[in-house]
Each structure stands twice: as C-alpha cells, then as structure tokens.
C-alpha cells in the first residue's frame, strides 16, 4: 500500500508533469492577456456604430487565430519537455505534406476568404445581407463559416466562406407603392397619405416615414410612393404594419384601392 502511495506521489511530483502544467497555465494566462488587449484596442471608437460592428468581427477572428497559435506553441514545448524530438517530427511530416495539403485545401480557402471578407469590409456582425438569394442578419462570422439568420422565417443558414463570392448589403430604405383611383382628387389622396406617414413614423424601429409623391400613371390607378427608413432586419415587420395603417386610413376616408375585376356574361342560347 505504501509503495503504491509512493508511486502516485512520485508521479504527481514528477518535474515533467509539473513543467507541463505550468506551461499550460502560462499559455492560458497569455491568451487571456492578449484577448483583453485586443478588446481594449478595437473598442476605442464606440461612437461609430459601423466600426464597432467591424471591431467585434475582428475580435472573434483574431481571438481564434491567437488561440490556435498558443495551442501549437504549448504543444511543442510539452513535447520537448518529454524529450520528443520535434525537429524529426516536422521532417517526418514532409513525407505526408502533399496528402495533408490536399486535405486542408478547403479549410484553408475558408480561412483566407474569412480574412478577406473582414479586411475588405464585405459585411460585419449585425449587417443584413443577401447571399445566394438568402436574405438575413449576420449573427456569426467565423474563420471558416458565416451564419445568417433569415429575417423572414427565422431559419439559420451556414455558408462556407470560400463559397461566398457575391454579397448584397440590404439597405435601410423601404419603399411602398400605393395605387389609388383616378376618380378621386389628388390633393385629397396626398393629404391622406401624408397622415398615414405620420402614423407609420411612430412605429418601433422606424426612423423616418415620408411621402415621396405621385410615381406612376398606371393603366387603372395612380401609383403613389412612400419611403420608410428602418433597420433592415425589421423591414418585413414594418412593411406589414405600414400596409395596415395605410389601408385603415384609406377606409376611414372612403378611398378604395383599384383592383382587377372580371365580368362574366351568361348567354342562354335557344334553338328555334
């Protein structure tokens, strides 16, 4: 029993194990210090919201890179403590470098593309973008992938960064066309639409609602245009609310929206 306890004590107090633990702790401490330094450096200008979003994205990317570098260094140091020749391992890796290179081609492309997306300011966390017909809010921009929350249905889409070649940033501008009858007076119609804009501007997430003017002489209606400024991720919600306000205002003032009508003639033919 005493021999067993002595063996355990010897293993616990083994210098190599202690040194390995110390190196791991130092690696964690360095990672924490660098992380805090990066946060302070990139959070200096919080007044500029665009820079703030980009800073958060950069923080995540740099944090991942620093973490992997520290893990690699700690791993090498621990191997050296146990007398493993790291140089021979590296030389041996040359034999399989071609295979390994082929295996990491796609991940490497993802990482390079992720860096390009951030440095070239394609988009940042919080932006609403359209990628391959999918429109949504960027909720995560990692080294290898981008996650987008579909603002229509709530689905989350994950894109490999290497596959992202064309991106459309969704603007804050929302335009609504309102078709009204030729039979009503323009002055009355414009007054009602201006009143609707005042109510729309009171909605949450709406910065501005403005009546633009008569936009088109359509075949069966005068088409007026309204401009709304709102956060892109709330566009569909704001549009539904604005349409309701416009219709209620039109109903209150007894104005109708023209629509296509089909007249069916029922002809009874009698043979004489």
What's the SSE blueprint?
Layout: H1 2-12, H2 15-42, H3 49-81, H4 86-93, H5 97-103, H6 105-119, E1 128-131, E2 134-141, E3 145-150, E4 156-160, E5 167-169, E6 173-180, H7 186-200, E7 206-217, E8 222-230, H8 235-252
Antiparallel strand pairs: 1-2, 1-5, 2-3, 3-4, 6-8, 7-8
Describe this structure in words.
Helices cover 50% and strands 20% of the residues. It is an alpha+beta fold. The protein folds into three domains: 2-103, Helix Hairpins (Orthogonal Bundle); 113-169, SH3 type barrels (Roll); 173-252, Alpha-Beta Plaits, CATH 3.30.70.100. The strands form two sheets. It has a five-stranded antiparallel β-sheet with strand order 4-3-2-1-5. Strand 3 and strand 4 (156-160) form a beta hairpin. Helix 7 (186-200) packs across helix 8 (235-252). The longest helix has 33 residues, at 49-81. The chain starts with a helix and ends in a 20-residue tail after the last helix.
Q: Which stretches are poorly predicted, pLDDT < 50 over at least 5 residues?
A: none
Question: Whole-number radius of gyration?
Answer: 32 Å
Indicate the CATH topology of the largest domain.
Answer: Helix Hairpins
Question: Which structural class do the helices and strands define?
Answer: alpha+beta
Fraction of residues in β-strands: 15-25%
User: How many domains would you count in the coordinates?
Assistant: 3
Walk across the major sheet and give the strand order: 4-3-2-1-5
Number of helices: 8
Q: Estimate the global geometry from the Cα principal axes.
A: elongated
CATH architecture of the largest domain: Orthogonal Bundle
Distance between the termini: 122 Å
Which class of the largest domain in CATH terms? Mainly Alpha
The count of strands amounts to: 8
Pattern of helices and strands: HHHHHHEEEEEEHEEH
């Amino acid at each position: 029993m005493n021999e067993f306890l002595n063996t355990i004590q010897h293993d616990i107090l083994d210098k190599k194990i202690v040194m390995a633990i110390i190196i791991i702790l130092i690696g964690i401490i360095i990672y924490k210090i660098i992380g805090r330094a990066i946060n302070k450096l990139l959070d200096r200008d919080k007044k500029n919201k665009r820079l703030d979003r980009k800073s958060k994205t950069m923080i995540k990317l740099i944090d991942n890179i620093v973490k992997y570098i520290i893990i690699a260094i700690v791993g090498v140091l621990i191997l050296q403590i146990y007398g493993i020749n790291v140089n021979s391992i590296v030389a041996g890796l040359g034999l399989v470098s071609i295979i390994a290179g082929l295996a990491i081609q796609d991940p490497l492309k993802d990482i390079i593309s992720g860096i390009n997306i951030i440095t070239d300011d394609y988009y940042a966390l919080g932006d609403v973008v359209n990628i391959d017909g999918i429109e949504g809010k960027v909720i995560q921009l990692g080294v290898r992938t981008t996650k987008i929350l579909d603002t229509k249905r709530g689905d989350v889409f994950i894109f490999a960064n290497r596959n992202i070649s064309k991106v459309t940033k969704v603007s804050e501008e929302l335009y609504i066309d309102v078709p009204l009858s030729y039979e009503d007076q323009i002055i009355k119609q414009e007054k009602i639409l201006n009143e609707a804009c005042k109510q729309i501007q009171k909605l949450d997430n709406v910065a501005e609602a403005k009546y633009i003017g008569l936009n088109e002489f359509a075949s069966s209606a005068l088409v007026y245009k309204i401009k709304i400024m709102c956060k892109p991720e709330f566009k569909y919600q704001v549009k539904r609310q604005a349409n309701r306000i416009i219709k209620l205002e039109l109903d209150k003032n007894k104005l109708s929206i023209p629509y296509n009508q089909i007249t069916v003639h029922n002809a009874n033919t009698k043979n004489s």
